[in-house]
Specification:
With 526 residues, the protein is an alpha/beta fold. The chain has 18 helices and 23 strands.
Length: 526
């Protein structure tokens, strides 16, 4: 059995990222460790005045093929893989003059960075590391005797010149995770970018835990953690900068993501505010200023907005921040915030402020995944959108320009409401939202009731459903849902169409004097 503590007598250092490598090498050399290195790493160490042995000297074979072949040699991998207390392994080492290597420090060619900078295919291929991952796997497999370091954050662990078995186990686990991530990035690039596959036979996922474990999941008895996507295209809640506030919870992250996805739909629109509660929008509005947009969104449902998530499509200003602080808010998501807004929020120590930079593109491609028993359901993102040419007016009456604008607005919001979804909108603001019901009629009634309740609370003469447009995320299977919207005061309808009873629904709309638009696109969100 291996000894728990293994002294480092020979170390092989070969890194692309040379931050901290000279200081580590100096610390090891001070402990009498023999340094072996390759290419640019060896040059950097010699320039720092250190004595370094070339890998080619160790192997007796020169580096060749532009450095593609240098560490792939029995003198290297024999020194890494040899089981030190196995008599046959020891005899083989003696017979072939293989010296033990006790430490490998390696980080891999910058594949992801090369893709991110828009390099050509040949350069990307050249940045697929071969020798590095091979050394990582050899050293990690033989962690009973060999330490493997792939992260400069771990240099302090090995600088003293010896390692414990517990340390080597942790380093091996981390190193194998690094090569798995690296291989997944390469496989993803080949499948999606190079080969243009939509659903490859094997789906590589690259996820990295962000911070410590979360306090709990959806409920206190559930454990949880957040894993952020990595790679050049990663942008979203996982990459946002938290300016202030306590740690985000599982539900905070889930709701903030829902808010960001919806506000991204309005990335290029006039000032827009989204308020989300339990992953459903409870108020959305467009206005001349962010503060006005917030007030209009808040008025849609002042009860649900309490403890909600707010997202805006413009840098946060003091006036909007002041309005938001009027009630308890869990999270605010914005592209940026000015100094006055940040200062106002600083007085609310529990409010989390997340700054995303440029908002993501709502039309971007990508995949979404949901775990089910025994597997995962994977689909393309719902990045579907409609332009005016795709809209089909199916009633005798055409929508007015304002009705058309409100239809399009309501349709965009309904895309982000849990099905069955009904959204009433008027003058660029939601009037009522019905979400997650088992039938469309109940969603229409709930949305209308919420609009009436909002009017009562605000002291308005009538609910904003009067003269509104209403969007349905899927077709009306019967005329009853449409008639409920008529009863609420809607004058225009937008829906996908496609029901076997479309003629019945259209006839009901004509009889009520409505304008109705078919989109031909459904937006279920379960």
């Amino acid at each position: 059995m291996p000894t728990d503590i293994v002294p480092i007598r020979r170390a092989l250092l070969s890194v692309s990222d040379k931050i901290g490598i000279v200081d580590l090498a100096k610390a090891l050399a001070a402990q009498g460790v023999e340094l072996v290195s390759t290419g640019g790493t060896a040059t950097a160490l010699r320039d720092a005045g250190l004595t370094v042995r070339d890998v080619s000297d160790l192997t007796g074979f020169p580096e060749m093929m532009d450095g593609r072949v240098k560490t792939l040699h029995p003198m290297v991998h024999g020194g890494l893989l040899a089981v030190r207390d196995d008599a046959a392994h020891a005899a083989a080492m003696d017979e072939h003059g293989i010296g033990a290597i006790d430490l490998v420090v390696v980080n891999l060619y910058p594949f992801a960075q090369t893709v991110a900078k828009g390099a050509g295919r040949d350069e990307i291929i050249e940045n697929i590391d071969i020798g590095g991952p091979s050394m990582v796997r050899s050293a990690a497999k033989n962690h009973a005797f060999v330490a493997i370091v792939t992260d400069p954050a771990d240099y302090a662990t090995i600088a003293r010149g010896e390692t414990t078995l517990e340390e080597r186990r942790k380093l091996a686990a981390k190193a194998l995770a690094a090569t798995a991530t690296y291989d997944s990035m390469i496989a993803s690039w080949f499948a999606f970018a190079d080969q243009g596959e939509r659903f490859p036979q094997t789906l590589p996922l690259v996820l990295e835990r962000s911070g410590e474990e979360l306090r709990y999941g959806e409920n206190p008895h559930q454990a949880a953690a957040f894993y952020a996507t990595t790679g050049p295209a990663a942008r979203g809640i996982g990459q946002a900068r938290q300016v202030q506030g306590k740690a985000l919870s599982y539900n905070n992250l889930n709701d903030a993501d829902a808010a960001l996805e919806l506000i991204a739909e309005f990335r290029d629109a006039d000032p827009t505010c989204v308020i989300v509660k339990h992953a459903n929008p409870c108020g959305v509005a467009i206005a001349a200023t962010l503060a006005e947009a917030y007030e209009a969104a808040f008025a849609c449902d002042t009860v649900s907005a309490f403890g909600g998530i707010i997202a805006v499509n413009r840098p946060l200003d003091a006036a909007t921040a002041q309005a938001i602080t009027g009630i308890f808010t869990e999270v605010v998501v914005a592209p940026d915030a000015d100094a006055e807004a940040v200062e106002l929020f600083a007085a609310k120590k529990n409010l989390r402020l997340l700054l995303t930079g440029e908002l993501p593109d709502a039309r971007r491609p990508g995949l979404t995944a949901k775990s089910i028993t025994g597997g995962w359901l994977v689909q393309s993102r719902d990045n579907g959108s409609i332009d005016d040419d795709a809209l089909r007016v199916v009633t005798k009456r055409q929508p007015s320009p304002q009705e058309l604008a409100d239809c399009r607005f309501a349709w965009t919001v309904a895309k982000h409401v849990k099905s069955n979804a009904i959204v009433y909108a008027k003058d660029g603001a939601t009037a009522g939202v019905g979400a997650g019901q088992m039938n469309r009629l109940e969603s229409a009634r709930i949305a209308a009731w919420k609009a009436k309740d909002a009017a009562d609370k605000a002291g308005w003469a009538e609910p904003r459903t009067i003269g509104s447009a209403v969007a349905s995320d899927a077709f009306f299977p019967f005329a009853d849902g449409l008639l409920a919207a008529v009863e609420a005061g809607a004058t225009a309808i937008i829906q996908p169409g496609g029901s076997i009873r479309d003629d019945e629904v259209i006839a009901a709309a004509d009889q009520a004097g409505l304008a109705m638009i078919f989109t031909g696109m459904r937006h279920f969100r379960h």
